[in-house]
Design brief:
The complex is a heterotrimer of chains A (251), B (225) and C (56). With 251 residues, chain A is an all-alpha fold. Chain A is 79% helix and 0% strand. Chain C has a domain of 25 residues.
């Protein structure tokens, strides 16, 4: 089994195989996005309480889910990078960070915009939004640390340690912030929570979540491919690839 | 003494001796702590009721900031004179080094902050029982801060923008400590119980003692290996 | 159509959210592709330039 995995871990093999995946992921993203947007903006009935403003959920919730999902991917990649020293894992971690930070930012901004028509303020110190804000700082910290270290590999491994420190902290932070928010606001349901959701409203949500996921993998893959070339710059296969004059960036 | 206890004691002694020699490194974060607390009455006005209400939060935030400042020099001197690299390469158990460094940091930073918190809290109109809870929460919290801070300090040793980067990385991780520490103290001020909050801080401390030395060891190996 | 844009009076909020999302995802997509291409270009340049490279 390790031989099978090892083949994928080989940077050259991964680079070649991933060329095919890029196209499919981009296509899947486009289709899912189209279907999800149509469902969210057109088909889903307006919420009886919030009217059409609830449609922001189709951006806000998938972004929030992705912000955590990407972090978990980074934590997994980080663990693999530290324990087995697999270069591909290092590259994947570094490629994911800006994407995760972007999703977190998007969740915060859309959460803020959604809050305004509903509760009259641009920001609520709601447990979930506040946790997202702290998550954004964690992402920025990982990116800053990686950036500050000159050697690419050392930077990736230091970022991996920081990511894992963060992943242990995330449940602690979540719980602490939840607790803090009930302390100061009373035990009301989190403002952005919804008790139940109509199936016509739920399906576009799931579709958008999938769309964001395929987007993440497509974008991360593009960055990873660049990272692979940089890591293996002195090998023959990269020299051949580059020397053949195909500098178009397509696989 | 070359057993683990010996190594631990040697490292702590060395840190204390170095602090005794170059007192400024040890003192400046403490002066900063006092200064940071003192700023608030200027900002908010000296009305006792208001000060008493914000005292818990103010002292805690200042403690966090002072801790993140004092962490910057934790490994810096060893990095500068090459002894850190030697320690990593020599096969000394790095988790033990991490615990020793964190303990020394607490003795030089956390403990003085506990002492300084007394007059400061009184100046902010906190009463006796609340003060005791504040000190208990700070004792537990500052130990956590030293342990987690040692790991992050090892990650950022010698980097450009080191101090600010360190602070940026560590402050989000300190937020749970802040939440429970300040809440424990505010509860005490209101005459409510603070046991649950203190237990939670104690739990975090146990977690920190168990996990952070390994994180620090990994960080040192990565940066110095 | 006008009704669709108005979004029951919440148009500004809904459309600004979706626009920001489009921007964030779009910028990420562009930067990701550019990163890949930049490496290829840089390596091609290095290769055609000299034969002894410094190690990464």
């Amino acid at each position: 089994m390790f031989a099978f995995l090892h083949k994928y871990a080989s940077l050259m093999h991964f680079y070649r195989l991933s060329a095919r995946w890029s196209g499919w992921l981009a296509l899947a993203t486009a289709l899912l996005m189209a279907y999800g947007l149509y469902g969210g903006l057109v088909t889903a009935p307006a919420d009886y309480q919030q009217g059409d403003s609830f449609r922001i959920i189709y951006i806000h919730v998938p972004s929030a889910w992705m912000s955590l999902f990407v972090y978990m991917c980074m934590a997994g990649a980080g663990a693999i990078a530290l324990v087995w020293k697999i270069k591909l894992a290092e590259i994947w971690l570094r490629a994911s960070a800006p994407l995760g930070a972007s999703f977190t930012f998007l969740a915060l901004v859309t959460g803020s915009i959604w809050g305004k028509p509903m509760w009259g303020t641009w920001w609520v110190w709601d447990a979930r939004l506040t946790s997202e804000l702290i998550l954004l700082f964690l992402y920025l910290g990982i990116m800053a640390l990686d950036n500050a270290i000159e050697d690419r590999r050392t930077g990736a491994r230091a970022a991996a340690v920081l990511t894992l420190i963060g992943v242990v902290n995330i449940p602690i932070i979540h719980y602490s912030v939840e607790w803090w928010s009930t302390l100061h606001q009373g035990p009301t349901v989190s403002k952005l929570d919804r008790p139940s959701i109509h199936i016509d409203m739920l399906i576009p949500l799931l579709v958008m979540a999938f769309a964001f996921t395929t987007f993440y993998f497509a974008a991360a893959l593009a960055r990873v491919r660049g990272g692979i070339l940089a890591y293996d710059r002195n090998t023959n296969w990269v020299r051949d690839l580059v020397g053949r004059g195909t500098v178009r960036g397509h696989g | 003494m070359t057993g683990p206890a010996g190594v631990f004691a040697a490292i702590v002694r060395r840190e204390l001796r170095r602090a005794a020699r170059s007192q400024s490194e040890a003192l400046y974060p403490l002066i900063f702590f006092v200064l940071a607390v003192v700023l608030y009455p200027f900002a908010l006005g000296p009305e006792p009721a208001l000060l008493a209400r914000v005292a818990a939060g103010v002292v805690w935030v200042a403690a966090l900031l002072a801790a993140s400042l004092s962490l910057d020099t934790l490994f810096r001197n060893d990095y500068g004179d090459g002894s850190l690299e030697l320690v990593v390469l020599s096969g000394t158990p790095l988790a033990l080094v991490a615990l020793a460094k964190a303990s020394a940091h607490w003795l030089l930073s956390g403990l003085p902050i506990l002492v300084l918190a007394v007059p400061l809290a009184l100046a902010l109109e906190l009463d006796g029982t609340t003060l005791v809870i504040l000190l208990a929460s700070l004792a537990l919290g500052s130990a956590c801060m030293s342990l987690v801070g040692t790991a992050v300090s090892a990650l950022t040793v010698g980097l450009r923008g080191g101090g600010m980067l360190l602070a940026m990385l560590i402050l989000p991780l300190y937020i749970p400590l802040l939440i429970f520490g300040a809440a424990a103290t505010s509860n005490a001020a209101l005459g409510l119980g603070a046991a649950a909050e203190l237990y939670f801080l104690a739990g975090l401390l146990v977690l920190a003692i168990t996990l952070t030395p390994w994180a620090t060891a990994a960080a040192l190996r990565i940066r110095m290996g | 159509m006008a009704e669709f844009l108005a979004m029951g009076g919440y148009g500004a909020y809904v459309w600004s959210s979706y626009t920001i999302a489009a921007l964030v995802l779009g910028v990420n997509a562009v930067l990701a592709r550019r990163a890949e291409r930049a490496v290829l270009h840089a390596l091609a340049h290095d290769l055609n330039g000299d034969d002894d490279d410094a190690t990464a």
